[in-house]
Specification:
Helix content is 36%, strand content 11%. With 273 residues, it is of the alpha/beta class.
């Protein structure tokens, strides 16, 4: 009888140990699972409480990277967060004029509101000046934010879409050998597979659009497209043609400058030879 009781106690102890091991394993797995906190810095640390529609940065304010302090990050970490996803930190089109810092202003007619869209990227290698306290030091301010986030025990995520570029793209921070989107495009074509963008060609009375060279280029492209259709049997669909026409009509009222870019096309940059 005593032997049987001893055996039962051992079996119970073994079962309890097995349950404890499973619980610890589940707890460890839960702790290892990433918990992401998405943050839009221009809104997160903006202290203006009475924003108005279409207000500029002076009226509505804008959050700054420097305002995401160690205290703030410690509180976020206390929620069990493992990663902070900073959205809208890459330089994008906006209505604020930073030309005094060497940043080319964007056309206000093609910017989404005063703040712009964080996915209308104007420089993939730079930081949005709106969220910097000191514009010339914006990259250093972002690097400091990354360091503060790591010091708080969290990792950093940022996101971008390679094809979502602004109507005006120019990088003043790209590594040597990287060309801008649109650099080398031929704006005399509405569409060319060699261009990064669609364009509204120059008007017929413009001499540069009717030179023998430009006419030869257009004829060569037309012949190439016809040859491709004859070889593959593919023809442009009516829906594609209609979309192209609609895009041209919609943008022609805004892109009045001859030879101006009118729509986004390509997703890839090119390196210089």
């Amino acid at each position: 009888m005593a032997k049987e009781k001893t055996t039962n106690r051992r079996a119970t102890a073994k079962a309890a140990t097995t349950v404890d091991t499973k619980t610890q394993k589940m707890t460890s797995q839960a702790q290892a699972r990433p918990v992401i906190y998405q943050m839009f810095p221009r809104l997160f640390s903006n202290t203006t409480t009475d924003c108005v529609p279409d207000g500029d940065i002076l009226r509505n304010g804008c959050g700054k990277m420097n305002d995401i302090t160690p205290k703030v990050l410690k509180a976020i970490r206390g929620l069990g967060i493992t990663h902070v996803w900073y959205t809208g930190v890459i330089e994008h089109a906006h209505a604020t004029d930073y030309s005094r810092y060497g940043i080319t202003p964007d056309n206000p007619y093609v910017v989404k509101g005063k703040a712009g869209s964080p996915y209308a990227i104007s420089d993939y290698y730079d930081i949005d000046p709106d969220i910097a306290v000191d514009v010339p030091s914006r990259i250093q301010e972002f690097e400091a934010l990354v360091s503060r986030t790591h010091a708080a025990g969290m990792k950093v995520l940022i996101d971008f879409v390679p094809n979502h570029v602004a109507r005006r793209y120019h990088s003043d921070a790209a590594p040597a050998g990287i060309e801008d989107f649109g650099q080398g495009d031929d704006p005399t074509y509405f569409f060319s597979p060699r261009n990064n963008f669609y364009y509204i060609p120059r008007s017929p009375d413009s001499t540069s659009a009717t030179t023998p060279s430009s006419r030869r280029k257009r004829r060569a492209t037309t012949a190439s497209m016809r040859s491709r259709r004859a070889t593959t049997g593919m023809r442009p669909s009516s829906s594609t043609t209609g979309l192209t026409t609609a895009t041209a009509r919609a943008t022609s009222t805004r892109c009045r400058r001859p030879g101006s870019r009118c729509s986004i096309f390509s997703a890839t940059g090119r390196r210089k030879a």
